[in-house]
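can u do me a favor
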């Protein structure tokens, strides 16, 4: 294996955990008095959503009310990867947490599979709030939202209108609309109209002959990974396809989704967010420009903080123990004060 892949450390396998969890120090069994995981399913506008709820040690809904946090996963990710890691770690801090697979993705329902449209991803976040607000022991007045990567951009989208979220946090925020429209680091500006035409043609194929056109497949060799131009793509290919792979996780999405993605932006009307806002990112992340841009435009709240993790790239914020510890400590401080 290439040197960069080896540097990612232990390879985790979904089949080694009864819930398919692929993150370090994941729960392996539910034990009384400890953090427990509860797989659940619920209906969201006719789509069955698959989620995991984590309850804190000593969970006793009859005698105590708990704050809750919803966790939105990255693009291409699942609830069993980094979203599950942070859901478990925050449950260890006393929160009831939920991580759900996005509609049309993972173990959730929805056809065509791998549809990736902002409306649905944002509605998924509203749906997690719907479900967790009624969960035994949850104080519906103390719900926070936390999104990672693409889930961070969609969390900003949800928080513009959903005032149930009393505090909002992101990690390594990825503005999916900007990147699908302009290319990563705005490198695809000359091909915007071409890609919109390809997306439109894909929709035409679906409605005329029933064929679904996909894009974003990334099943690469180690040598091909080494040649990718950005840290995000190199390290992401290793994380999602090697060290933390999950059978439901894929970069694939329908080409038609670009019609919606390319006309959306996480920062549009971001001034509608008036809740306390924490945005975290690695100071070596090549995605940091998106966090910086959103943070500057989030003028609807004066209670906001930009927290940088020294030495961390985008993907490293997902799993490197020293970085995760810093992030969990910061989230605990933030939500502890704001919820």
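np, heres the sequence
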């Amino acid at each position: 294996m290439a040197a960069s892949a080896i540097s990612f450390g232990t390879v985790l396998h979904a089949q080694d955990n009864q819930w398919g969890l692929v993150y370090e120090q994941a729960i392996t069994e539910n034990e009384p008095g400890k953090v427990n995981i509860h797989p659940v399913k619920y209906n969201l506008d006719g789509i069955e959503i698959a989620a995991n709820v984590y309850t804190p040690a000593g969970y006793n809904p009859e005698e105590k009310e708990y704050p809750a946090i919803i966790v939105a996963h990255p693009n291409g990710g699942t609830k069993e990867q980094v979203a599950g890691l942070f859901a478990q770690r925050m449950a260890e801090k006393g929160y009831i947490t939920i991580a759900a697979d996005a509609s049309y993705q993972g173990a959730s329902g929805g056809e065509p599979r791998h549809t990736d449209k902002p409306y649905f991803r944002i509605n998924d976040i509203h749906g997690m709030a719907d479900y967790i607000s009624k969960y035994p022991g949850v104080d519906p007045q103390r719900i926070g939202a936390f999104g990672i990567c693409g889930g961070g951009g969609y969390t900003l989208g949800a928080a513009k209108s959903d005032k149930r979220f009393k505090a909002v946090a992101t990690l390594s925020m990825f503005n999916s609309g900007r990147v699908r429209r302009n290319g990563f680091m705005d490198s695809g500006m000359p091909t915007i109209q071409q890609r919109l035409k390809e997306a439109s043609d894909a929709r035409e194929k679906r409605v005329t002959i029933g064929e679904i056109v996909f894009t974003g497949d990334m099943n690469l060799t180690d040598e091909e990974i080494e040649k990718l131009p950005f840290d995000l793509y190199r390290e992401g290919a290793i994380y999602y396809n090697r060290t933390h792979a999950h059978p439901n996780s894929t970069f694939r999405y329908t080409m038609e989704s670009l019609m919606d993605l390319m006309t959306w932006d996480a920062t549009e009307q971001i001034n509608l967010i008036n809740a306390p806002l924490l945005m975290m990112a690695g100071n070596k992340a090549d995605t940091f420009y998106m966090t910086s841009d959103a943070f500057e435009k989030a003028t609807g709240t004066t209670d906001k903080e930009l927290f940088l993790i020294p030495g961390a790239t985008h993907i490293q914020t997902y799993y490197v123990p020293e970085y995760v510890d810093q992030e969990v400590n910061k989230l605990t401080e933030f939500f502890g004060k704001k919820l």
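Confidence is low (pLDDT under 50) at residues 1-6. hope that helps!!
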